[in-house]
Amino acid sequence: MSLETRKRYIERCPRCSQCKWLPAPKSQRFASVCPSIQYGNFHSYSAGGKGFTAYAMLENRIGYSAEMLRSVFACTMCGACDTSCKTNFGDNIEPLDTLYELRARVVRDGKSLPAHVELIDNLRRVGNPFGKPSQERARWAEGLNLKDITKQRADVFLHIGCTPAYDEAEWRSLQFCAELLKNAKVDFGVAGNAEQSSGGLAFDLGFQEDARRLAEASAKLVVASGAKTLVTCCAESYAAFKNGFPRLGVSLGGLRVLHITEYLDELIRDGRLKPRSSANALVTYHDPCKLGRLSETYTPWQGEWRRVLNVMYIAVPPRPVLYGTEGNYDAPRRLLQSIAGVEVVEMERSREYSYCCGAGGGAKEAYPDFAEKTAGDRLTEAEATGASVMVTACATCQRHLSAVANKQGSKLRVKGLLEMLCEAVV
Ligand code: SF4
Ligand code: SF4
């Protein structure tokens, strides 16, 4: 695709501003869905506004400026705008697709932000955005004697992901998870230091060729392993495998793709794992964008738009519309509820309308004040539920929310779902 192909979609946008709001908010306080407009407080920061920026670029009416780039990149690529827009317009406008192509155009024009170029340089050099040595990727698994899936066949390819692999705070949960799988007699293996980023971050930053190269390398590793199921511990990779790879034309050979929360949920429901001890806590669950609305399976579509009744367009043949409702929402909640003593209370914005934590899309690296404000707003919403613990199933969300909670002196404890299970299953 290209930005030019988005023109006809942008033209259909009537500037209704639904992309800024929940379709059916429960309160004025938490009615916004878009962290970008909450930060920039100017229409250009909304998805509709970014669409018109793109249109003006295509018409050669505007050039690049620091403020224009700020409106494009102070955005977490969370996709809540897209879900809200679709409640009124289905797939007629799809603002998130325009955001992807707008960023790709900025990259093509050599106007990327220095913070993003640094992330990409790291991905090119060592296969992770942090610039950490690739030979340290599997340090978390030292001494566990796990099967190396690049040398031995296994039923399940356990994919780890960059943030869990390099964040030492995640290692205990990963090790626990590996033990759980062993106890449940799952035949699984890991790729160790051969694993690298699945390309989701590169795609979000607009570096689509880097994303394709990383996706192809990941797919090659997974397909060559002969595994039947791909289970990932990384929310960003989960979204990349299900949504990003098909966008880039990269195939995983029809493999079943699951997030670790879905796989553990299946093992518990099959009676192969049993959470035993109690946690006694009122918790609220934060739906990560990448595990929820952004993880719906993307199906490439070849067809045409037909104008009907002079005002509407219909897709011929019809294509599946991603409304955000088919994300991984139930498995994490079931896992939490499987822990005796845990009561789950919902935030006002949850499931497909979850409010972003602020860390995604390169926002944390480029505009840390924006990322912190967004996390602060999400923590306020979690505090309003009365919960003492906020649980999430994405290491990036957890790391960011936890850092901001500490900095802002929040009483809320932010925990990973695997960490919660780790404490509950002895
Ligand atoms: S992008 Fe969608 S929701 Fe936003 S202003 Fe345009 S039509 Fe309305
Ligand atoms: S992707 Fe998220 S932050 Fe960006 S415009 Fe859409 S709702 Fe706002």
Structural commentary:
- The relative contact order is 0.13.
- Helix 11 packs across helix 12 (235-248).
- The protein folds into three domains: 1-111, Orthogonal Bundle (Fumarate Reductase Iron-sulfur Protein, Chain B, domain 2), CATH 1.10.1060; 115-269, 3-Layer(aba) Sandwich (Rossmann fold), CATH 3.40.50; 275-292 and 327-426, Rossmann fold, CATH 3.40.50.
- The mean pLDDT is 95.
- The protein has 18 helices and eleven strands.
- The protein has a five-stranded parallel sheet with strand order 1-3-2-4-5. It has a four-stranded parallel sheet with strand order 9-6-10-11, sandwiched between helices.
- The termini are far apart.
- The chain is an alpha/beta fold.
- Bound molecules: iron/sulfur cluster (SF4) (2 copies).
Kindly list the characteristics that best describe this protein.
binds iron/sulfur cluster; 10% strand; 3 domains; 11 strands; Rossmann fold; globular; 44% helix; alpha/beta
